[in-house]
Write a structure and sequence with these properties.
It is built from 49 helices and 28 strands. It is α+β, with helices and mostly antiparallel strands. The longest helix is centred in the last third of the chain and has 35 residues. The chain starts with 32 loop residues before the first strand and ends in a 31-residue tail after the last helix.
Amino acid sequence: MCLVMGKGRVKAVEKRVLDQKLRGSLNVPSGPVYYPTEDEFKNPLEYIHKIKPEAEVYGICKIVPPNSWKPPFGLDLESVKFPTKTQEIHRLQFRPASCNSKTFQLEYNRFLEEHLGKKLKKRLVFEGNELDLCKLFNAVKRFGGCDKVVKGKKWGEVYQFMSSGEKISKCAKHVLCQLYKEHLHDFENYHNRMNADPAKGCKRNRRCSEFSSSKRRKRNAEEKNPKVDNEEAVDQACEQCKSDKHGEVMLLCDSCNKGWHIYCLSPPLKHIPPGNWYCLDCLNTDEETFGFVPGKCLLLEDFKRIADRAKRKWFGSGSVSRTQIEKKFWEIVEGSGGEVEVMYGNDLDTSVYGSGFPRIGDQRPESVEENVWDEYCGSPWNLNNMPKLKGSMLQAIRHNINGVTVPWLYLGMLFSSFCWHFEDHCFYSVNYLHWGEAKCWYGVPGSAASAFEKVMRKTLPDLFDAQPDLLFQLVTMLSPTVLQENKVPVYTVLQEPGNFVITFPKSFHAGFNFGLNCAEAVNFATADWLPYGGSGAELYRLYRKPAVISHEELLCVVAKGNCYDGEGSTHLKKELLRIYSKEKNWREQLWKSGILRSSPMFLPECPDSVGFEEDTTCIICQQFLHLSAIVCNCRPSVFACLEHWKHLCECEPTKLRLVYRYTLAELHGMVQEVEKSGDCKTQETNNSQRPSSGTKRSASSNKKEGMQVCQARPAEDWLRRASKVLHSVFSSVEYGTLLKEAEQFLWGGSEMDRVRDVAKSLIKAKIWAEAVGDCLSKVEGEANNDSQKVHLELIDELLRVDPVPCFQSGHLKLKNYAEEARKLSEKIDASLSSSPTITQLELLHSEVSSSPISQSKYEILSKKISSAKMLAVRARYYLADTKRPGAELDELFKLKSEILDLHVKLPETEGILDLLKKSELARDKCSKVLSGSISLKNVEELLHEFDGFFSINIPELDILRQYHVAALSWMSRFSDTMVDVCEGKDQRKLISDLSSLLHDGASLGIQVEGLPLVDVELKKASCREKARTVYAARASLDFIEQLLSEAAVLRIEEEKLFVAISGTLSTARCWEERASRVLASEPQIYDLEDLVRMSVNIDAVLPSLKGIENTISSAESWIRKSEPFLYAASFVASSSCSLLELPVLKDLVSQSRSLSVQLQEPMILETLLLNCERWQCDNHHLLQETEDLLDIAKIDDGMPSTILPKIMDLMTRVDSARTSGLSLGLNLDELPKLHSASLKLGWCCKTISLSSSSPSSELLVDVGKPSLQQIQQHLKEGQTLKVLPEEYYFGKRLVELKDTGLEWAKRARKVVIDSGALPLEDVHELISEGENLPVHAEEELQSLRARSMLHCVCRKPYNSRSMVSCSQCGEWYHTYCVKLHWRPEAYVCSACCPLAKSTPQIDTPRLMEPETPPLNHRRARTVATDVAVGDLQWKSRKRIRRVGKRSPQVHILPWFFSYEPK
C-alpha cells in the first residue's frame, strides 16, 4: 500500500502555514529526566534501581547518557529491505466499532418481534442513502447514549463519526434524532437493562432447556438417522477447548450456531448472559476490523523519500515547532484533522534485519575503529546485552524471545504511532533512539493502570464491546486530555537521538514520531518486577491469552540458580510463597474432591534455564503448566490447570490424575533456600509451616492444620500396611496396590517425607524382587537361543544387593545357578589361556551352549573356533599344489602371523613354515643379483633355476623377468635401426629412432652391448639435420661455424653438404668486412643501399645488416616528417593553409643530429628554426609595447590627437609583424596574441572616433553624430574581445553617450504614445533637447515631430477621435469638427475647394456609414514627410485660407493617426 497523506483536504497546505484554529496546548506535565555521571552509568540496572522510587510514580522517564557514550550505528540500512505496516492515524481513536450489520439486524428484528410485536418492514433512508442502524447505534453508544447526545446536541458529531467526517444541516440533525428515538431508543434501553442485570437470564435458560430437550429428541431418533446425530455432536463442541462436555454452560451463537463454554471465553463469563448472544466473529466483520495492515518492503532511501514528502505536505518546507506537530497529531487522532495514512517499520527482528548497536559477529563498518566497536559490543547499555545482565531475571531464559530478550528495531516517520499498552508480563522496557527526529512519549504510572482502563472503557464503550481484549491489540489511542479530565495521571517525555526512555512495570505508555527516525527497544526485569510479573500472568489467565514465558518456571529457575542478590531475595521469596500457597491450596482441594492419583512430570532438558517448548498448556486458559496439571485417560493429550480441572471432562474425579513437577516439600524448600540466602526470615513462612505454640492461629492456619490431620490418618495407616508388606513374602499385587494408594500422599509437604521414603523402598524392593523372579523363570525355563537367556552379569548384580530389600523365595535357588555358571566361566578361561586343538574347543563350546545362563565369553569361544577353521582352510590352499598360480609372499607372512597369534594347534602349521623358508631363500638370491651390476647372461641363468618351482609370487623374481623381456626387445630394435643407418634413410626418422633407442637402453635394468654405437650414430644424424636447416632458414655465422666444428669432430666434414656450407660462410665474412669499412666513415645513403642489395644472395644471418637497415629506415622516416617544413622553407606560406607546430620543428632538428648518414635537409630546417626564434624575440617587445599603450589609453584624458597617432602606428606595425609571422608557415604562440592586439587597437580607434563630438585630428573623418545602434554594436564588439569599456577613458565617455541617448529615447517613446497628454511646448522642448544630443536618434525625433503637428480647423494635435484626410492638400480633420457622421471614401477640405460644401453629396445607394479601414491600411496611407511637417506652423492657432493646390504627400506619420475609438 502506498502512502496517502491527508485524504480529502489538507488544511493550510497551499500557504505552507499551520491552521491557526488549533485548540490550546495539551498541558501534559513532563516526566523526569536523569543525567547519570560516568560512574553511575557503568551499571544500568543499579542506576535504574536507584532512580526507581522517584521515577516509578511517573511510569516513564528519560535517561541522557554522558557525552562520552556515543555508540556507532552498526546497521547498513541502505542495503536492507524491511517490511512496513500502514497506520490509519485518523482511526486510532475516532473510529466506529467493527460490526456485522446482518447480526445486528437479526438481533434487532428479534427484539421487535418479541418485545414490540412488530417488524421493520422498510428500509430507512437518510440524506438520500440507506441508514445503517448498526453504525448509528454504536455511534450513539460512543457519545454516551441517546440522552447525553440529545442533551449535548451532538447529533452532528454522531453523524460525522459514523460517516467519516461528513457534515449535515441543522434540520438533518433533527431528523436523525427523531429516527433514532423512533427505531432505536427502545432497543437501547433493552440493551442497557440486559447488561445491567445479568440475573435476568430466563430466556437463555429456556433456550438451554430447549437445547437439552432437542438433544434428547435426537438421541431418541438415533436409530432413524444416526448420521445427523453425529454431525450435531460435532457442531456442539466448544470452539476453544474442542470438548463437547458440560453442555449446561455451553453458549451457542444465535447467528452461526457455534458453541463456546462460558469459562472458555476471553474474558470468561460467570453466568449465562440474558437475551440473545453472538460470538465475536459474528459481531465483527473482516472488512471493518481495524488493525495495522502489512505494507511494502522498502529500502531506507525509499522510506526516507516517502517520509520527507509526507512532512512537506503537512507542514511545508519551513520550520515547524514540535508543539504544532503534537497539536496536529491529536487533531487527526480525534477526527478533526483529515484522513492520514502513514507507514511504520515497527517490530523488526534484529536477529533478521540487524541491530543498530554493535554485536560480536556482525560486520564492522570501515569508518568505525576496531577498539571502539569491541568496547560497545560489550557495553551493558547495549540493548542486546541488557536483558541478560547480572540481576535481570531474564538471564534465566534459555531461548531468545523476539521483542523481549532480542531487541526490536523501529523505523518511523511523521505521525507513525505506538498505541496505549503495557509490556508483556508487565516487564520493564528500555528504548534507545539511534538517529532522526524526536519521539514523543506519554506514560501512565502502574498505580493508575486500573483507573486508566476504566476511562478507556468508559470513553470507548463500543470498541470494548466489540473487542473485550482491545488493550491487547495495540491499535487504540486516547488523548491525554481525556485522561486528565478523568483524574488519571499522565506524563510526557520527549526523546531526542541518543536518549534512553525507561517504562516501569504495568505502566501504560504510547506515543508518536515527529519525523523520520530509527529506534531500538527491548525488555528487562529486575527482582522488584516479580510481583508485577505475577499479576501479568493472572491477566493472561483471565483473558485466555497465551503467555510469553512461564512465570512459575522462571521463579523456580531463579530460585534454584541463585540468580539474585540480598534485596532481590525479598521479592523472590514473596512471589515463591504466593505460588506455593496457591499450589498447596489447590492440591488439597483436589484431594478432597477425590483426585487421588498422581505422578511426577518429566524433567526438562535444561532444568537450570527457562524454556517454552517443553511445558504443556491448559486447554482452558492457555497458560503454561509448569508446576502441575490435571489429565484424564479419556483425553490423554489434553491437560488442564488445577483451577480449571472441572472443565477438563465429565469423568469422575477418581479417574483424573494430578501430574506435578515438584512436591510441596520441594517448593517449600525453595522458599527456605531463598530465605536463607537473603537472610530475611519472615513470620509468614514460619506460620505457614511451623506455627509456634504461643501465637494465636488464624482461621486459615486452622484450616490448613485440619487438612494435614485429614491426610495424616490415612498416611499412617498406609505406613503400617507398607511395613507389614515389606517384612512378608513378596507379592507383586500387594506392592502395586500400596504404591497406587501412595500416589495421594507423594505430592504433599514435608509431613509426607516418610511416605515418600517408604514408597521409594517399595519401588526398589518391587523392582528387585520382580527382576529376581524374572531371572529365575528364564533359568528354569527352556531358552531356545542365547539372546533369551539371562546374563551372568545381571544375576551377579541382583545377588550383590545386601541386605535384600524384601523376602524373595527364589533368591537362594538363583544363587546356586550362578555358582554353576561361574565354574563354567573359569573352565573357559583355562582353555583359552593354553593352546588347545579345534576339537577341544568345540567340546567346550557345546557345554557352554547347553548352560541355562548366558556367558559373556561364549562369543569369544565361538569366534576362536571359527577363526581356527578359516586359517586351516587357507593353509591347505597354499600347500595343496605347488604348480598352480600362488599368492603374494606378504599373504604367506600374514597367514603365519595369524596362526601363531591364535594359539590353536593346527596340523598345517609345519608345512606353511617350510614353504615360507624356501621363498625367503629365493628372494635373497634375487635381491643379491639386483643389488650388483646385472648382465643379461646372469639373469637368464637365475630365471632358468627358479622357473616353475614356486607357487608363491616373489617380487624380486618378477623384476628380473621384466628386465629380461625388456632387454630382448631392445636388442631386436637395435638390429633394425643399424640397418637403416647403413642404408642412409630419412635423417629425421633416424634421429627419432636413435633417440628412443638410446633412452630405452639407458633405462634398462640390464647392461646391453651396442648402446655406445647408438650414441655416436645419433650425433651424426643430428649434425646432418642441422646442416639441412641452414638452407631452409638462414642461420647465424656462429651457428654455421659451430656446425662445421661438430662435423669435423664426427669426421663427416668432407660430405658434400658441409662443403657447400663452408663456402657460404666465406662469402658472409667478406660482406661483413666491407660493411665495417663503410660504417667506419660517415656514409652516403646510397652506399648503405648497395650493401643491402648485396646481402640478398648470402644465405646467412649477417650481424651488420640489421643496423644498416635501421639507419636507412631512420633517415627515410626523418625525411618524411621533415617534408612539410622543407616545403614551408622553400615557398612562402599562405594564410589559408594550416600552420605547422614549432615544437615539432625543434624535435626534428634535434633528431637530425643523431642521424648516421650525410643529408642536406637538416641545414634547411636549422635555418628555418633560427628565423622563427628571431621573429619571436622581435615581436615579444612589440606585444609589450601594445600592452603599455593600452594601459596609457585607460588613463589618458587628453585630446584624441595625442594618443591616436600612436595607436595607428602601432596597429600598422602589429599587422606587419603578424603578416611576416604567417609567412613562416608555423603556428607560433605570438600570432593569436598579435591578432588580438590588432583588434583591441582598432576598437580603441573606433571608440575615440565615436566618443569625440567633432574630430580634432586630420586622422579622424567627420562622420557626424553616431547613432545609438552604432554605439551599442561597438560596445558588443568590445565584449567579444573581452574589453571592458569602463577601463578606458574614451570607453567611459562612449558609455555615458549611450546612457544619455537611451534615457532621452525612452522619454520620447513615452511622449509619442501619450495620445496628446503632454503640452506642445514641452514636446517642442523635448525635440530641441533631442536635436542637441551628441547621439543621433532619428527615429524618435521623427516620431516627436509628427506628434507635435497641429491639425484640423481646431488647430489641435492628434487625439483619440476619428479623423479624415483631405485628398487635395493632405491636411487631417476631425470628423466631428467638419460635421461628418462617417468617414467618406474621398474628402476635399473647404480650403482646397472654397465653393464646395464641406459636407459631400450623399449618394442614395450609400446611406450606410462606411467601414473603418483596417489598421495596416490606415498606416500605409497616413505617412508624412519632413517637408510637410516643417510647413505646418504648429505655434499658430489662427485660421488661414488655404491655397487650392495639392499638398505634398505625407510619408512619415505616427501609427496612432490610424487609431479609431471603439
